[in-house]
Structure formats: structure tokens, C-alpha cells
Amino acid sequence: MADIAGRKVFLGIGAIVTDVKTFGSEQCKIVAHLRPNHPSILNDSQRFFDIDMKLTPKESFANAKFDDNGIDADGNPLGMKPGFGVTSIGPKWPIGRFTGMVYVEKHHFNENINKIEDRDAKWPPMDYHAHELMTIVYENQQGPTRYAGFHAEMVTPAAGPAGDARIRVFRSGMKLLAHPVPVGEWPFTMGPRKQCDTNIEADVLNPLPGTDDLLKVTKLEANSAPGTQGAVFIDLNLVAKHYDYNGCEPPQGLVSPKIPFWLGFR
What is the pTM of this model? Predict the structure, then answer.
């Protein structure tokens, strides 16, 4: 399926900053880190991947190659504060973070896939659903509308077209577990570009060439049967609202993916 006009899809990877262009720069080079046994060879220039935080939807939607930093509960950029970071390295160096995540526009990802993946480390990592490491951004006159992907289960379907559905959201990275850890239940309006965006087609669920297995994932709809599990993309403002800022264990709210793996879930 062709891309939808005015929408960009981003894929999240772990990142270690290896070089910064200049003091105060928003440009750097990274080495991708996808799983525990993914070697972080910081002096292997063949794996260096250029990042430019001026090429984001907020700065230039048409030219965006990387998603922006996350937001707090008031809608302000997170910077280095706790929260759902989205692209969490930087945003400027040398003061910003040198390890974290980068969300790469899917076409730019594919153009650089040989720098991101290697024989022993493919995207998505085996314990993640692809949608748990994805964001969707729509172009708007008021500024980009952003969604983050999660794996969830329908609890109570919507009573009608205007009603809310209640869904249970799971902690990211639990794909291989028979009983993934839930982090909370919330009512959401589900539909195209609603609180939960259901405008999810093959260009989202199959973002990389040759990964047809991703299409086996169900997308949750407002009328999905109770107990149905699948992909949901939640408005980033609501992700920030329902984030577990207290660092509870197990979480009592949404949390970020654990990539790179030594960073924990915060």
C-alpha cells in the first residue's frame, strides 16, 4: 500500500553517540544498538549513522528523517527529563544524552539498513512487536500530531461510533511471554486520527522490505471483540498524561521501550 499523504512513520532504534559535529550542535554520528548481543564497535566507521535533529517533523515535516523528542504532560519537549522520550538522545551536544533512542523515518531507515542491522541483530528485536518501536506523525497547520505504538488488549468495545473503547496496554518488549505485563487500562476514542489512530495499514504494519510476518499483527478497532490483542497508536499527549513518572515496579502507567537494554525502562 502506498504511503498516506501528510503522514510519516518512524522506527525506533537504540543509539550510542560516537561523534558530535561541533559544540552546541544538533548533528552527530551514532552506532545502532538493537539487542544485548549487538556489538557496539564504536570505532567502526562503516556502522556510523548520521543524525540531524533539525530534520524532524517539528522543524521541517517534508524533509523529516528523524522524529522529535518526546513531550511532558504539559506538551513541552522533554529534553533530559523523565518521560516517553521518543528520540531521546541529544537534543544538543555536548550537554545532551549520548545514549538513548532515535526514531528514524522508515524510508531513510531502509536506505541505511546495512548500518543499522547486522547478521545477528535485526529490527525489530525478537522480544518486541514492531509497532512497539514505531511512531506515526501527521502534518497539521497547528503543528504535527504524533502517535506512539503499543501492544494492547480490548477490554470493553465502544458502544457506538462516538463512544470510547476501554483497552489494556502492555509493557513493551514482552512479545515472547505468554502473559505480558499490563501497565494500565484507559478509555480511548478510536478511529482515524482520534485518541487512538486506527488508520493503520500495510505501510505501517509492514514498514521494511521482506517482513510480511508483521502483517500478522491485528490492529485494534473500536469494535474489536473483548480479549483481542493487537497494535494501537496512542496520541502522544495522552501517552505523556498516562506515563508512569513515579518509576513504579511493576509500572503503574505507560513506560518507554528498554533500548538500549542497559538503560532500563525509564
Answer: 0.93
